Amino acid sequence: MSGPSAAMIAHTRRVCSLYKKSLRSLESWYDRRHIFRYQAVLMRARFDQNKNERDPTRVAQLLADGERELFETQHFQPKKFPMSPGGVAFEREVIPPDWVLDYWHPLEKAQFPEYFARREKRKEEYVAWWEKQYGKTSATDAPHH
Fold it and tell me: How does it assemble (predicted)?
């Protein structure tokens, strides 16, 4: 098997992650775009300064120092994307689970006859697939509601 070792891939991934987190941290600190870009170029120069380092001990120490510096200089209120966890719009629009349709009143279901007929057929197909894949569940194995 040729190619980089798993340890090298893990190290490369950690360095890339550190670089991206560092950029995000700079974005939080510098809200003016031109100042952020200047700081990002300086930070990239720091990464490039050590990219050809071959001593494993020194490489590990540089990575640990970078992660520690990132932790120590993190912003007290980091920017978050609106739809990401912690963002202002995260899970704002809740998509109801499929089982909610089972509790619709028959008069509501009658307004969409083709949809509910197809849905019942697909539910039967799913139960058949499940029983073929995993076997039938006995009454004692079924969850109690």
Answer: Mammalian complex I is composed of 45 different subunits.
Structural domain boundaries, residue 19? 6-73
Q: How many domains does the chain have?
A: 2
Distance of CA 46 to the CA centre of its chain: 28
Interval 32-91: pLDDT, tens? 999 999 999 999 999 999 989 899 999 999 999 999 999 999 999 999 999 999 899 998
In a domain, 50, yes or no: yes
Distance separating alpha carbons of residues 31 and 93, to the nearest angstrom = 29
Residue 9 pLDDT greater than 80, yes or no: no
